Amino acid sequence: MSGALSGGTQPGPLIRPDETLPGIGGAVTAIPLTHPGNRRWWIAFAGAAALLGLFALTLGYLLYAGPGIWANNNAVVWALDIASYDWWIGVASGSLLVSAILLLLGAEWRGAVNRIAETLALLATAAAGLYPIIHLGRPWFFFWNLPYPNTYNLWPQFRSPLLWDAIDIVSFLVICVSLWFIGLLPDLATLRDRAHIEALRQVEAKAPTRKLALLRAQVYGILASGWRGSAAHWQIWVQAYRTVALLGVLLVVSVQTGASVMLAGSLMPGWHSTLLPVSFLVNAVYSGVGVTAVIVMLIRLVYGLDALVTDRHLDVLGRLLLCLGCASAYCYAAEYFDTFLNGDPEGRGVLVRRMTGAHALVSWTAILCLVLPAQILWSARARTAPLAIAAVGLLVAIGAYADHVMVLVVTLTQDFLPSSRLPYTTDIWGIATFAGSVGLFLTLLLLFLRYLPAVSIVESRRLALTVSPAAQEAARMAASRATGRPEENPVAAPLWGVAATFASQGDLAAALQAVSGISPDQVHLDGHGPVPMPRTLRPLGLEGRSILPYALAGALLGGFGFFAMCVYATAYDYVFLIGGRPRLSWPSFVVPSVSFAMMAGCVAIHLALLVLNRLPRLNHPAFNIPGFLRASEDRFFLSAEARGDRFDAGRIERRLAALPAEAGRPLEIQRIPR
Questions:
Q1: Which band of pLDDT confidence, cut at 50, 70 and 90, is reported for residue 349?
Q2: Locations of Gly residues compositional bias (predicted)?
C-alpha cells in the first residue's frame, strides 16, 4: 500500500534532511510544554466550550421532555440521532482502520498521521457512545443493556441490535484507548524527561512557575508508567501495538458490516442490497481519512510542523482521498445501476425520492460532496496544497453525514404501507444535539493538542535514522569520539551494576554480543534506547518472547464465553420469542460475540504488555545512570545489573573498552551504585 500510494514522482522527502533525534523530540514536545499559539488555542477552546455548553443544555432539556424534541415520529424513529451516531462511529472506524493498516503494512510515512488518526478514533467513539444512551428515552437505565445479574433475574435481549450497539461501543472504546495509549507510551517518556529537565531549570532559577513545572513533570512521569526504553519493553511494545491494530481492523469490519447487514436483512425498500456493507465500509473509511486530513493540516499550519508533516505526507493523504473518492463513486453508480436495472418498483421509488423528494437537498449534498471534491486531487499541485486537502476532507465529512441522513430518513418516511407514511422535518433540537457532540469532540481534541504529543516521536525518529543525513551524521560523529575508558574513581558504595553509553543501536548490539557470554547468574544484561532495537534481541536472548498466545487466548475465551452466555440466556434460562425468531437464534449472537472477542483479546494484550515488562514501575535503578534521560532522546545504554557475589565489574569494563571504535566501543563506561 505504501509503495502504491507513494510511487511515481515525489513532491519531496518524508522528513527534512536536517532533522536530528533531539530536534524531533524538541519540536513535538515544545507544543505541550511551551504552548505556542496560546491565544489562538484559548479562542478555539472558548468556541468548543460554548458548543459543549449547548450540548449540556440540550441534554438537560432532553431528559426533561424526552426524545420527542428531535421531531421523530412513528415512521421516522431513526433520524438525526442515529444518523449522528452512525457518522461518529464511521469517523472512528475510518480513523482507526487507517492507522491500523498503515501500522500493519509498515508504511514509513505513518508517523505524521497515525497519532492524529488514533486520537480521532478515540474521541469520535466517545462522542458516538453517548447517542445510544440518550436515544433510549430513559438514559439513566442504560445499564439494562449490559449482561449483569439484576434484581428481576432477567437477561438483556441478545437478539436486539440495541444490545449489539452497546457491546460494539464498549469494544470499540476499549480497543481505541488501548491502541492510543500503547502508541503514546514511549512519547510520554520523552515528554516526562523533557518536563523533568525544564522543572529542574525552573527550580534552579527560582521561577514563579516552578511548582507547576514540577507538578507537570510528576504527572507525565505517572502517565509514562516507568517506561525506560528497554529492549524487552520495545519488543513487547511492537508486538502489542501491531496485534491491537489487527484486532482493530477486524472490529471495524465487524461493526460496519454488522450494522449494514442488519439494514440489508430488513424488508424496508432501498436497504436490502448486497452492496450496502461495502458502501458502508468505504464511506466510513472515507470520512475518517477526511477528518484526519483536516486535523493534520490544521496542526501543521498552527504549530509549524512542516518539517515533520511534509509535502510528501500531503501527497499521500491526497492519493488516499482520491482512491476512496473513486471507490465511493463506484458504490453509488453500482447502487443506482443495479436498482434501476434489476430492482423492484419500491426500491426504484426510494432512489427517485432521494433525488426529487422533500429531502433531495440532503441526497444531492451526499453525492456531490463524496464524489466530486476528491477529483481535483488528480492534480499533483492540489495534492500538495494544504488548503485543498483540508477543503476536500471537510466536504467529505459533510457528505458522509448527509449520506447517513439520506439512507435513514428517505427510506423510513415511506415503506410498503401507505398508512405508515409520515413526513419528517428536521428539528432545531436535533441539530443542537449534533452541534453539541461536535463541541465535546473539539474540546477533548484541543485538550489533547495542548498537553500531549500530536505527532508520533518514535515513528518520526525511526524514519530520521533511516533517511535523514543529519541524524546519521550525528551518530557517526558521536561514535568517533568514543573512548571506552571507565571512570577513574570507581564508586565505593554498594554496586548495582555497570552502564555504558553508545551512539547507535549497532554499537549497542555489538557491545551486548561481546559481554553476552557471562553467566546470567552473575549479571542481567539489558539495553535502552529511544527507538525499537531489534538488533539487540538475539544477544539478550529475547527472540522467543511473543505476546500472540495471550491475545489468542483472550480473544477465544472472550468470544466463546460471550456466545455461550447468549445461548444459555436466550435458549434455556430466559426464553422470550420475538419477531418469529427461533429459540436458538445463533446467527444473531455472532455479531456481539465477535466484538466481545476483539475486546477480550485487546484487554489480554494490554495486561500482558504491562505484566511482562513489569510496568508500571516509577522508580528503577536504571534512572540513576548519569545522562540516562538521553535514552529517550538520542543515546543508547547498556546496563549490566549485578546478580550475586560473583559479579565482576572490571571484567565487563575491560571487554567493553577493548571493542574497536567502529564496532561497539562505548562513549562512556560507568559504575552505578544502588
A1: confident
A2: 1-10
